[in-house]
Structures are given as structure tokens and as C-alpha cells.
């Protein structure tokens, strides 16, 4: 490009090598630089907004317009806030980002004051879209031609690798932005006017002149306009006239003439914007051809970007996020609801998998009992076992607990010293193995995946194999009694029963390994005989909340034949019916009660359960006689979202005995404070709720669009007058919905029914109706206020002639009217392109521009309706109008509906103690995870430790100790020579593959004891320590 004598000066003082270093990336080709170029273009735009234009913007300050800007940008920010700085499900988050950019630009270019900053958004937007479509057309044609040359063998075979469409679109966007920024600050002048260096500046910056002598930085900033002029005249000067390139003269767009008065002839100079565009296109083509036609592609089968991404993925675990329970777009949740309906209506009371298991098992003979009773651990010494429940939700939380369970020993602080707790010989899992529904995907990704990372299965084990003859023991182990590794026994929870127990049977009863834990069990319930006279009964309550007759018969016979009078029993169920029955004022588990009270007769020392995702322990106070159960323990902190504890703080009675709360984790006070997150974080945690919330709000106010009589709100002289008129209009709109509307009233009525049914049946019917009415009223008032704010914004723009002036395709019509003036085309290049593309090229530009005329379409249609009535609108016109209204109303309503609903949940959980499940599932809290470890001591008593981690790591890396530890072990057998074999994972010192990226956050280093007590096997008093 050309240059002139003014190219020196400030340009020479810039350290261009530093600029190149900052913007240059390791990627060798410019077409890989899209994201970095976008950043560079953005900062370039800010750099060229000169100070003398900024002060004009401040001088034209208007409270009305700035308030409108604040509201508009505020709503758009709150809508997009969950997607800033993170990638959440790219399909929805990317859609939201593009959606926001689209309708925000469409709104901003209709509002005033941006020309004060030197930005004509209307011209820039239309020019951007034109160059964008032209670039896409050109690059698509280029790629088609290049692939054709590859097909006939004229270029390297590696060139057949197809380019990514997203890369093409990104480069076209960067190219178009660069051209628009150049046009905004340099124009499309064929002959650039020389601007005087001594430019007059506003008195607003008079103090800079005085300080410029003493500050180099202030002097450079003060002379920013001089720098801009030099950049335009030296870097982007015209490349010459069309006569210099006679063969290409018909393929140029010309620049406009810069002259005072009338210009006798049209310009013969090539457009600087056209030359800039051609330069970028040429760079892209040149680098693409070089890459695909040389050996570079052979040595780099993947781009550096993809290679680094793939490498990072391999060094990071593929954990799933916590289940989004309030997602309106999750197929898993809809499947869960469907499975639950089928299970309740089809299986409950009609078909029970437990009956089928009983029919296939003859518990009276030895073979049948082996499938339910496991006594191979009865003679073990120094026996430890673990309990956890409700895993299989978020990968970070599930793996954190699984990693602690897998460690050979855990070092935990106690007072001023440390103690070591060895890994349990047996792991007991109390149900709800995967969320939200049982399926092959959820079991493999949410359950087996984290556990296999924590403790790998044997190398010879095949994950997709079915265990025909359980247990499948390692080579050299003769029977289950001889196996020294950790074992696992599980019971199903309510979520495991949603498919009739099908997935549980396939993955638990018909497979042998959960990670490195051997699974010997063959049925969904079991009895486990432990050392020192201890027993564990794992009961399957299904969806009935109780055991069936065959299950009761098995345990009844077992107690009579095997359980001694001085033995002690631990009963595991999925649901803690002592808490839930108290909460719901219900009476469930009658067969379980009969088993405990009448069959075991005070031999049940401990009941354990999950289902509630917190830790709580209640112990009998023995104030009103002996209790049938000494301790009641809930620990559902295996990986699922957190549940509150303060809701159950007043529980005190079970089976006629009194109990006192010993430990709650998190504490009652912390639990109440955590609930505040529903107000502050509901939408951030449940951004997919937008899909439902925005539609509901739009239905509530559908019949109120448009509001034609809003002028009285704007006539008031005081703020109180405006507010009074506004609130009066809100009340009138509410009355209209109740008295005359059909669609909105139906929406309100349906929402009211849903809100009343949503309130838990724990409280009386009158209170449920009252709470439902207040809940719906809050939503309706919020929707009405948002509707009036949107209508007021449109009304203000119409009154100031910013909208409803041109009609449909206003941007395209305006651009066509100025195109020939600013971008002369005397050779008819555009006409030829239109002919070659059969009219597709101008049609794409036209309809893409019309997408940014949404506010204009909304205002024009609104004005026509207000003048001629709704009857004058055609069906297609009505669809277009309501669709355009919905595009903006959806953005305004989604943050508000989440705020209102989150506030409702907070009030209910902390004041009314209802919605404990709904109010905490919305928060998706992965922290506060725990499990319980038991030690059977020599005297027959059990010492109990509950280990917890307050904060779960979110970022993991490959554990170097695990990676470097020798995998082979030397087996010394007296009958033969020593042989090397691969270690079983439980034999390793570092069994878990991943560790936290920050060592201080790793669960092994942050684990602590939150509860410690002793369970005595005899009837002597149980105590805490």
C-alpha cells in the first residue's frame, strides 16, 4: 500500500515488535487466528474511539436515554451472565451468546448517541453483513474449486481433509469487522484529505495540554487523533487506480471522491476497503493452499489447537456435571419422569422384581441361601468396612468420595495428632447409584467411571462382559474366603427402581467388579455375617417403602437359625423412614418394623440409610425405656447434590423411643444459610430453566400486546407521578387478564393449578391454596411489569421517530440508497454477481439485514394494530409480530422468573420448612461429601468414624505418583520360581489416577472427622467420643 510524508512521527515511536509479539501465537497460519484476531480487532476499535468524540457523548447526556440503555444492557447482562467465562453445554450456551449478540445489536442501532462516539451503527451493521455474505460466498467457491482439484489429483491427497465450517465463518466475521472499523475511522475515500495536526480539542481536556509537557503518556493520549490520521493515511492508503490493472478493472469496487462541492467525474481509485478485503482473502487462500499442498499437513494431521485440546482432554477426567434438575431441555429428565410414571402405574402392585428373584431362589436349601447370605468374612480379624449412599451424580463429587474409599489408609487429624484409618474390607452402598434415571449411560458414566478412576478393575476384566458364575475371582484365588481385596455390596434406591430394577440387575447382579471392588452379590438384597457376632442386613424397599413377604421370610428364618441372642445387627435401607415418616406425618415400612421390633428384639444396634443427601445421627436417650434401635444414621453424601439438615432438626421419636440429635453435617445454621443461594444463584445453576420460564411469562401477558395507551405515563412531571401512572396501568392490565383475556387467563389458571399441586402435601389444603395463589401472583405481577417496560421502551422510540418510520426491510432499503454513493460500482460488478448466483447473493443480504430489523417490525406492526385494530392483521403478520415481541420479552423475563422462583424456594425452605428436595436440588451443591467407616474392635464393639470433605475439587490432573508407581509385582511361591505379575489395584500405594490440580484441595489432604462414636454389641450404654 502507499504511504505519504506524514507516516513518520508517532508511528515511529511505537514498538511494533512488542505488538507483534503480543498478537503472534504459536499457530503457523493466519486462518487459525480467528479468536485472537477478534480480540485484536475489538481492542483496535476501542483504541480508535477518539477522546474528542467521547466528550461529545458526555455533553449529550440524557437521563431518559441513559436509563433506557441501563435497563436494556442490564437485562441482557443478567440473561447472558451464566455463559460468561465458561462453556456450559456448548449447544445451548453458544446459541445464547449468538442470540444475545443478534438482538442486542438490533436494538442498539435504533437508539441515539452512538454517532457521538464516531460509530454509525446502521452503516457499520449493513456494511458488515454485506462483506460477511460476500466473504462466505467467495470462500465457499474457493473451497469447492480446491476440493475439485484434489479430486482430479492436482494437489496433495491430504488436501481432501474438509475445512471446518466454523473456521470459515469466524474468519469471515473477523475480516468483516476489520473492514467496518476501517470504514468508521478512515472512510472509503479515494483521495484522503490531509487533516491538520493542530486539531482543536474540547476544553474538557484543557488540563492535558498543561500536563503534556511533563508526561509522555498524556502527550501520546492527547495526540491520539494525530495517530489515527497517520494510520489511515499510511497503513490504509489507496493502492492505486483501476487503470493500473487493466485486466482486473472490471473486478474492482471504487472509492468515493473526497472533494468540496460538486465532483466532475466519478472516482477511478480502487476502494481502500475493497483492497483491505482482498488482502485478507488472499492471505487466507495463500496459507490454506500452502498448508494443504505441502508436507506440513502430513506432519501435522491435527492443528496445533486440536492437538493441544486433545492432549488436555486425555490428561483430564471426563466427569459429568451435576444433574440439572430444573432443565427444560434435558432429555434425561423427561425420560426419568416417564420411567417413574411407568414404574408407579405398571410395576407397583402388579409386577415386582423381588418376587421374580424369590421365585428363582429357594432360600430353604443351601444353594439358594448362598445367593443371599455371605458368611465368608465372619472369621476376619481387625475388620473395617465402609458405608456410603447416593453416588452417581456429579463426577467431581463422586470421584472425591470414591478416591477416599480407595486409599490404603487415610490420615486424619484428631485433636493435636493424626490417626490412620485403613481401607474398609467391605464397601456397603445404600442405593441411588446413578442419577437422574437408571440407564447404561448413567451407570457407566456417573457410577462406574469415577470408581474405576479411583480403584481400577483387574487388567483381565472386560467391562462389557456378563458374570455367568459369580464370584469371578482373580487367578490363584480358590474361593471368596481367600480373597484379600476389597468387596462391595449394594442395595437399590428409588432411582434404581425407575426402570423396574432392570439396569441394577444387569450392572450389579450380573457383573463382578465396581472398579477395584469385587461384587459377589447376586440379588438386590443380602445378609452379611461379620466378625465378632455382627450382621448386616441389606434390605430392598423398592418403590413401596417396605420389604416384600419373601424378603421378610428370608430374614425371619435367618434370625431364627443363624443370629445368636447376643449378636448385633446393622440394618441398611435406602430411605430413612424415621425422618421421612416424621416429616410427612406418615407410617411406612410396617414389615421392616415387624422385623426389627418383633423378630430381632433389641438386637438391631444401628439403622443406616441414604436418600437424604446429608449426614445426621440420632441416638436413643433411654429416657422412656430401651429403644429397639440404638442409633439412627443417615449418610447420603456419596456424590449427589446436598440436602438441608435444619428441616429435620425437631425430630425426636421413633418406634416409641426418644432420640436426640448428635451430629448434623452441614450444621443447622450452615444449612439455613446455604438456602440463600436460591435467591442469588438459581439462574446461574439452572440456566436451562430459561426454556420453560420465558415461555410461561410470555403466555401470561400474551393477550396484553400491544399496549396502545401509554402516553399518560410519560406526561408526568415528577417521578412519583410517573410511578403512580405506571402502577395504575399495571393494575388495569391485571384486571384485563382476569376479566377479558382468554389466552393469558388460561395461562394464569394452568399456572395456578400447577403451583398449588407443587406445594407439598405436608401442610393443610388451605395453606397450599394460599401459597399457590401468592406464588402465581408474584409471577404475574413481574410479567406485567416487564411487559409494560418493553412497551414503554417501544413507545418512547416511536415518539422520537427512532422506530416505525420505514417498515419491513428498512436497513436493507437504507443501505441500497447509499451504496452507490459510498461504494461506486461503475463496471456493474454487483449486478454480475447477482446474475451468476441467480439472485441468491442479494437475497441473502436482504434477509440477513431484515433479521436486525426486529425492533422496527415490532414497532410498525404495533402502530398498525393501534390504528386499525387486531382484525387488520393477517395470520402471518400476527405470527411475525408475536415472534418479534417474544425475542425480546424472553430475554427480559428469564432472569426475573428465576429470581421470583428462587425467592419462593428460599422462603419455603427457611420459613415453612417445605420443598427441602426442590430447594436444594436447584443449587446442585457438590460440596459437603462424606462416608462412614466402621472398625470392629477386639472386644466386639464398633468404633464409627464419619469422614467428610467440605469442598470438592473442580479441576483434576494426572497423579504423578500413580503414573510412576511400578505396575508389576514379584510373586514368591514356594512351589515354583518367583514370577512377576501385574499388581491388583488394591495392592498399590497410590491407587487413584487423578489428583486435584492444587494439592491443598485434594480430598486426601482436606478430609476430616465430623463424627466419632462407639456402638456396643451388648446392652451396656452406648457413648460418643
Automatic annotation (TrEMBL):
InterPro entries: Calcineurin-like_PHP, Metallo-depent_PP-like
Keyword annotations: Membrane, Transmembrane, Transmembrane helix
Keyword GTP-binding set for record: no
Residue ranges of domain Calcineurin-like phosphoesterase in the record: 387-590
Residue spans crossing the bilayer: 36-54, 66-84, 96-114, 126-153, 165-186, 691-714, 734-757, 769-790, 879-907
Keyword Oxidoreductase (UniProt): no
Top-level taxon in the UniProt lineage: Eukaryota
Name listed for the protein in its UniProt record: Calcineurin-like phosphoesterase domain-containing protein
Natural source organism: Cardamine amara subsp. amara
Pfam families tied to this protein: Metallophos (PF00149)
